[in-house]
Design brief:
This protein is of the alpha/beta class. The protein contains 12 helices and 7 strands. The protein has a 7-stranded mixed β-sheet, with helices on both faces.
Length: 281
């Protein structure tokens, strides 16, 4: 049985999938849960019912705080679903192993809809035997799992994934705003991109579904994107890896975050692009 800590957009979808197959023991969130699919229990009590704890919280640091006063039974498994600094996951894995507790960093892609549909892709770091022990639970909400190496490698892959994804998003915003100035409709321009070699997930899914509508909703905050790119930039610096596109994307997202409510949906950044991007020149 599993417990889910963090009942936001991702955690709620994952919890619903686990509840649907009878694998959800309990849930917890720092905020009141409107309709809980299982008993709402703090982590200290949850561990009596759940051998696997899934943390869908902002960062690995939040997991450390949640576990600070908890004694985890030997053989239990902590699954870190966050997008965080890989070094934090690797450190937590070592600490938990001293008490016989397993750890996986299982960074997600597929969004809130993927969590609801059970079609997430997981980028996983950790020991093979720990993954084998958690696989039946992970398969309840993920259709693809990539085991990338030791603890921290899943989070490293997620940072690279997001750096590429968000750079593509901002590049698409730039191009579409440019053709709009020529009088070309953005939706028509997206159709052209999707008929050619510049197509991407951003042009094929994100813009038609989430951005080019009266009330854009990409279901993630500007602050979240800015956080992820700052982490990716920091990882590149530690690795002494050239990362000019990551640096540019990080700077633009920092400007976007500062130009309005950091919690606003990032789908709004298309219409706001001229405002914040112009400040970066």
């Amino acid at each position: 049985m599993a417990g889910v800590i963090g009942m936001g957009r991702m955690g709620a979808g994952i919890a619903a999938r686990l509840a649907g197959v009878g694998r959800l023991a309990a849930v917890w969130d720092s905020q009141p849960i409107a309709a809980a699919p299982a008993p709402v229990l703090p982590v200290a009590q949850m561990v009596e019912r759940a051998g696997i704890l899934l943390f869908a919280v902002p960062t690995t640091h939040d997991i450390r705080i949640a576990l600070s006063d908890v004694t985890l039974p030997r053989g239990s498994i902590v699954i870190d679903l966050t997008t965080s600094d890989p070094k934090d996951g690797a450190t937590l894995a070592k600490e938990l192993s001293l008490g016989g507790v397993g750890y996986l960093d299982a960074a997600m892609t597929g969004g809130a809809q993927g969590a609801q549909d059970g079609t997430l892709t997981l980028m996983i770091g950790g020991e093979t035997d720990i993954l084998d022990g958690a696989r039946a639970v992970l398969e309840c909400f993920a259709t693809r799992m990539f085991h990338l190496g030791p603890a921290g490698h899943g989070q490293a892959m997620k940072l690279v994934h997001n750096a590429i994804l968000h750079a593509t998003f901002l590049a698409t915003c730039e191009g579409l705003r440019m053709v709009e100035r020529m009088g070309i409709d953005a939706a028509l321009a997206v159709a052209v991109l999707n008929a050619g070699n510049a197509r991407s997930y951003v042009s094929e899914v994100r813009f038609p579904r989430d951005v080019l509508k009266e009330y854009p909703s990409a279901r993630s905050a500007v602050a979240t994107l800015a956080k992820d790119l700052a982490l990716a930039e920091g990882m590149a610096e530690r690795l002494a890896a050239p990362a000019p596109y990551t640096q540019i994307t990080a700077r633009l997202l920092a400007l976007a975050q500062a130009s309005g409510d950091p919690a606003r949906d990032f789908g709004l950044l298309f219409q706001e692009f001229d405002n914040f991007a112009g400040k970066g020149q």
